[in-house]
Amino acid sequence: MTDPSRIDLPRRRLITAVGAGMALSILSPFARSSGVGQPFALGVASGDPLPDGFVIWTRLVPENQPLSKPVAVRWSVASDAAMTRIVRSGQVQADARLAHSVHVEVTGLQAARPYWYRFEALGEQSAIGRAITAPVQMAAALNMGFVSCSHWERGYFSAYRHLAAENPDLVFFLGDYIYENSYPASSGKVVRAHAIPEARDLDGYRNRYTQYKRDPDLQALHAAAPCVVTWDDHEVQNDYANRWSQDAGVDPAAFLKRRAAAYQAFYEHMPLRRSSLPHGPDMRVYRRLEWGPLARIHVLDGRQYRTEQPCVLPDGRHGGHVATCAALSDPQRTMLGWEQEKWLHDGLRQSRAGWNIVAQDLLMAPLDQQDPHTHEWGHWTDGWDGYEATRDRVLANVQQSGARNPVFFGGDIHSFWTTDLKVGAEVVATEFVGTSVTSDGPPYEAFKAVLPRNPHVRFFDSRQRGYVSVSVDARRMETRFQALSDCRDPAATVSTLKRFVVEDGRPGAQEG
């Protein structure tokens, strides 16, 4: 657990606001203790801000008794941190169908300003969270952070605490929010253990989110700023693709049942709108947000709609290192699905924003690399390199659309990257990829050795864990790679490893 003496100032303010709010609402019928224990142990979160509102989320998990019946949950939104000026409030039912989670789509608020929110149920009050509405007019700046790949067993979530202290306007979770798998106790890798070995069904995935959501640094980040979430593979299973398991011989129909359970648990634990409510194994998470004229944000789903990875490996698996095969460049294959590809193409073509941010889960740039065992040159087929035709179509559209200042954010590869995304010899977009919050990075020396064959890579480092901070205004985008001292230390410090700048109208990053 985090030492309370190390809590950063924004978290102290949140805790102070919680105390003030409790004192001021003590006469509320929702605030009379029922003796069930604190039901808000998973914290609160907000997400997907619009100019007139946002989503607020919590899930009830009382300590002293399981819930079976629906529970009334009171919510309030205030214009001040002490929750004295309530501007919107209401009541919703939390029931077992969605694990007693609530997703309130708050509307009717003023644009471009902060608000604070809180829940009450079962005689208890939640912590207070801070959210922000999106602007309509040109904003002076947009301050963001993005994170990915948070394996509970490999360390502590100090990256979340330090990002919360930066008071961002938006936080992007770009995949692997949880890990479904576990390390053996004998591996020497377990810093803190998962509660169950592997999540495979709805109870298992709920267990995983419950464990992760109890982390104080994760709660601090969600309480500090609205988030925008998408997924990668570990929210379901490592290297899955659409209806296909990574394991050879698994019946796709059986795997879709597992996917349905995983998607439901994802929805239950994220501040998502009703438009993302899953229907069996189908769930819409690709979507678009606007930050006034300054930025349009395109959020992608790189897992649900993809064609199976090409080039079957000798052991029957799909997804791995291959030298070549005809399917790699097959134009009939897709990573995003045809409907999502068209949606992205239309969104870029129609955009009038100063910056077009594409938030997704992977390294997009091509990477010519060596198999560590055979030393054969080739590509990793589970990423964009396995879907060359999709990448070509997306980047050609970026080039032809006229969309201003396209920048791609990514994760998955547990390392920091800055790359030029090209069509032929022309740089058409910039890419920043963040390292993992805790998960082990790929071998630094091996990847460094292949960089001469990949001149479009401006920067790479896999030795650090951390996150990425981004500030953008009408003239420039500044990106900072933030590195932790040691993710195995719950009191880890942070420092800036590298800084890059993208100037308005000039694709390609320069060291800042």
What does this structure look like?
The chain is α+β, with helices and mostly antiparallel strands and 512 residues long. The protein has two domains: 129 residues, Purple acid phosphatase-like, N-terminal (Immunoglobulin-like, Sandwich), CATH 2.60.40; 370 residues, Alkaline phosphatase D (PhoD) (Purple Acid Phosphatase, chain A, domain 2, 4-Layer Sandwich), CATH 3.60.21. The chain is built from eight helices and 25 strands. A seven-stranded mixed β-sheet has the order 11-10-9-22-23-24-25, covered by helices on one side. Strands 12-13-15-18-20-19-21 form a seven-stranded mixed β-sheet. Helix 2 runs parallel beside helix 4 and helix 3 runs parallel beside helix 5. The longest helix has 17 residues. The chain is globular, with a radius of gyration of 22 Å. The relative contact order is 0.12. The N terminus is likely disordered.
What number of structural domains do the residues give? 2
Profile the largest sheet.
Answer: 7 strands, mixed
In the CATH hierarchy, the third-tier topology of the largest domain is known as Purple Acid Phosphatase, chain A, domain 2
Structural class: alpha+beta
Q: How many DSSP-defined strands?
A: 25
Kindly provide the radius of gyration, computed on alpha-carbon positions and rounded to a whole number of angstroms.
Answer: 22 Å
Shape: globular
Cα end-to-end separation: 36 Å
Oligomer: single chain
Low-confidence stretches: 1-34
Beta-strand share of residues = 25-35%
How many DSSP H or I helices? 8
